[in-house]
Amino acid sequence: MNIRLILTVLLVTIIGVWLLDSPTQNTALVPQPLTPFSAELEADHGELSGLERRYIRSSRTGRIVKLQNGQNLTTLLGGQGLSQRQVALLAMSAEPIIDLGQLQTGVNIEISHPKPGQHRIRLAREYGELVQATYVEGDWHVELLHVPTEQLAEEHDLVIHNSLYQDAEHNGIPNGVINSSVMALSHFVDFQRQVQPGDLMEVRFERTEVTSFKSLFSHLQNPLLLTYLRFTNSGEDYRLVRYKGAFYFPDGRLAQSFLLKTPLNGARLSSYYGNRHHPVLGYDRMHKGIDFSAPIGTPIMAAGRGVVKRANRYGSFGNAVVIDHGDGYETLYAHLNDFADDLKPGNHVKQGDVIGYLGKTGLSAGRHLHYEVHHNGRAINPLDIKAPAQARLQGAALEGFKQQLAQLKSADSQLASLAP
Fold this sequence. Notes:
By secondary structure, the protein is of the alpha+beta class. Helices cover 21% and strands 33% of the residues.
């Protein structure tokens, strides 16, 4: 064979192999970026920490993809250059942190390929928590990152014309804030029968916002915390201020019962007391408590002073705590992810002490706290417990409360009427 022909064939073969191995040519493995994540971040935030800048630099080829209805992680990531085996390994490696088989439709996932043969996946677990998985040399390295957040205060007011929830939505008040307001005021107001057109409500609340990686948290609801509310109804004018997990009147009197109706902060009331269709068992039965939806790991507080009766696995309740408050009252906190350190039967707790952390253990369709109140062995509606007339802050607690009132009044002149 002619030497020149042999050299030509050899050269063409070498060039062909080089083209096949080149990552810039293998478009099936390295998709073109649709949404450069780093560009979005740098446009929104000129000042970033060194940690955030390192993540940004590694995302130059990143793109954001959304999990669609009927789609699973394998089909989603398969279209972004990952094999079925790599996705299966990812799910197993991430299992201690997140169940990737239970992702919600609409979740945003960032995919990048920092180097040939490497992949990086980022997605939100809860608001402010970012799961990062990096594939290097055949293994996934998975970690949980906490994204910096800031607290933004908002204040709204409304006059009721149609219904509280309808008018609140029209005035831009989140549903969760109204739920918290209703629960705080239910010691004094029957919202089923007493609310009428012309009633006035004012609310002030804090909204938690991530300061970066916003695209990955856009499908999640921002945590909200009601800090002040005012409600005028039937000639009564109620002003309530949150202080250390409970609501008080401006003069320091406790504005709720000896048991907290909401033994956690920033939660959404997701299920009421009474008969309901059970989401797991599939039939109607009595729901003997109320449920609160919040991120896994949210601290759960003792609803009142008492003695821990149990803190262990409790049948369909999963991890549960029961507290004896005396005078025939007991409270139950179910489906906990974990217990507070060293919590055990016989411990004395005060109202507001952390006793555990929200989860989804036991017979639970999703993450939530199930909270029950029992009196003389009979379940009662936690929202029906009435507030005492004389309990109030004293000493150092009262001074701290007054300082908080002063901060509220200086933050917004509309709250000047908070003076006792």
